Amino acid sequence: MRERVAVALLALCLTVAIGCAPTPAPSGGPGSATPPESSTPDEWQARLAPVTFDAWVDELSALKGQIVVVDMWATWCLPCIERFPHMVELANEYRGRGVTFVSLCLDDRDDEAALSLAESFLTEQQATFPNFLMDEVVTRAFEKLGLLGIPAVFIYEPAGDLRYRLTGDDPNNQFTDADVEKAIEELLEEIDPGIPAMRAWVSRDVDTSV
Amino acid sequence: MNLSRVILHATLVVLTAAGIPVLQAGEYNAVVNIGAPMPEFSELPATDGTTLSSSDLTEEVVVLVFLANHCPWVQGMDGDLVKLGRAVQSDKVRIVGVSVNHREDDRLEAMKEHAAHAGYNFTYLYDETQELGRKLGATRTPEYYVFDKNRSLVYMGLLHNSPASKRRDGTIHYTEGEPTEFYVADAVRALLAGEEVTAEETRAHGCSVEYEQDQAR
Question: Is the distance from CB of B211 to CB of A174 less than 8 angstroms?
Fold first, then answer.
C-alpha cells in the first residue's frame, strides 16, 4: 500500500515538475476515453470526456447490464491521488468479468492547468477505462451527485441502481480500499453464486506429487 | 434560542452526561445537528506554543473552523477567514482553528509555518487524537461550527456562499463569483444581537478529513 501511494504521488509530482503537455483531441464520444485497439500502453494518452450532470446520468444508464464502479476524484484531493492506483489494479483484476470501471474527475472545469495535470496523471497511471470530467460548477456538481467530499466510490448494480455509496462522510465509518473490493465481490456473488467457489477451486493448492 | 432548541440542547446535554451516545445527524453532517453541545477538549497544542482547553473559552460566541494546510480550498479561503477574524473577533467572539489530519503537511510544525504565511489572527490548534473532529462530524476543510454562550451549535457549514480554491498558478478562484451571503459572520452578529440565526446549516465544501479507521471500527 505504502509503495503504491508513493508511486502515485511521485507520478503526480513528476507531472507537475515537467509541465503538462496537451493531450490529443478525442475521437468523439465517451468511447474516446478508452484506448484505441491499435495503441500500446506506452502510446496511449488519457483524455477526460466532459459531461454535464444530465449527460452523466445517460452515460451510467448506457452501462446497464454491468456492475459499474465509479471513482470520483480530483487533482486537488490528495487522498484521491493516493487511492487511484488501487482502482487501476482492481480494474485490471476484474477485466472481462462484467465489471466496468469509470473515473469521474471533479476538478474545476475552467482550470486548464488542473485538467491537463489530471490527464497526465491518468496517462501515467494507465487508467485505460473511461475517464469523465464533470462539466458543472464544482460545488453544484457535488450537490447534484449528492456528495459531501471525495474520494468517493459509487458502485451500481447491473440493473442500474446505486448499490454501494462508499464515502468519507462519517468520520467513524470512512471507506477503505478493502471495502471497494468487498462490495464488488458481493455483487458478483449475487449475480453468479458459483463464482467464488469456482475461484477457490481454481486457486487451490495443487498436489504435484501425484 | 427558541424553546424547541432549548429542550433539544438540554436533552443532548443530559444524554451526553449519562454516557449515552447521541447521534443527531444534520442534513450535511453524519454526526451532529444544530443544537448539539460543543465537545470538551483539553490542552490542545497551538501554533503559538500555548495550549487551549474548552474550559478556557469565556467568550459569548465561539467559532471552530476545521482546516488543513495542504488543502487548496483552505488556502483559497484563508484570506476571507483572516478578514472574518478582523471583523468579528473581540472579547465576545473567539475563532479557533483546528487541524486533525495525520499527514505530515497538516501537523503542528507545518501548521506554524502555514499560520505565519497566511497571517492567521486566531488560535490554531492541532488535535492529534482527532476526537474533536470526530465528535463534530467534521469531514471537510474548511468547515465552520458556531456555538452560542451555552456552547450549543447554532450554525455549521460554509464561511460564505462562494467557496474559493487556490489554483496551481497561485490565483484564487471563487466558484460562484463574489460572495453575497456571509453565513458565519451573520450567525455571529445574530447571536450578539440576541436574534435568531437564520441559516443554520450549509453544505461545506473542501478537502476531505482523513480519520484513522482502526480507532473507529
Answer: yes
Question: Which residues of A are less than 8 Å from B216 in CB distance?
Answer: 171-174
For residue B73, the chain A residue with the least C-alpha distance is A76
Q: Which residues contact A124 (CB under 8 A, 6 or more apart)?
A: A11, A12, A14, A15
CA of B164, closest CA in chain A: separation in Å? 10
CATH class, domain B37-215, is alpha beta
Q: Which three cell numbers stand for residue B13?
A: 446535554
Domain boundaries, chain B: 37-215
Whether B139 and A169 lie within 8 Å, measured CB to CB: yes
Identify which of B139, B167, B168 has the shortest CB distance to residue A171. Answer: B139
Selecting from B134, B165, B203 the residue whose C-beta is nearest the C-beta of A76 gives B165
How confident is residue A27, by pLDDT bands cut at 50, 70 and 90?
very low
Q: Over 70: is that where the pLDDT of A41 sits?
A: no
The reported pLDDT for the residue numbered A191 is 85
Distance from CA of B139 to the nearest CA of A (A): 6
Tell me if ipTM is over 0.85: yes
Q: How many CB atoms lie within 10 A of CB B174?
A: 16
Q: Is A121 in the B-facing interface, judged by CB distances under 8 Å?
A: no
Residue A17 lies in a domain: no
Instruction: Indicate which CATH number applies to the domain containing A198.
Output: 3.40.30.10
Q: How far apart (Å, rounded) are the C-alpha atoms in residues B217 and B52?
A: 29
B31 neighbourhood in chain A, CB within 8 Å: 170-172
Residue A170 near chain B (CB below 8 Å)? yes
For residue A83, give the amino acid letter: R
Share of chain A above pLDDT 70, in %: 71
pLDDT value at B10 more than 90: no
- As for how many domains chain A has, the answer is 1
The band of A43, judged by pLDDT with boundaries at 50, 70 and 90, is confident
Inside any domain, residue A16 = no
Tell whether A48 is covered by a domain: yes
Residue A153 covered by a domain: yes
How far are the Cα atoms of B52, B138, B190 from residue B148, in angstroms, in the given order? 18, 18, 10
Which domain does A58 fall in, by range? 44-202
Are residues B138 and A169, on separate chains, in Cβ contact within 8 Å? no
Comparing CB atoms, the residue among B72, B176, B211 nearest residue A139 is: B176
* C-alpha closest to that of B127 among B145, B142, B108, B110: B108
Mean of per-residue pLDDT scores for chain A:
82
A5 CA to chain B: closest CA distance, Å? 13
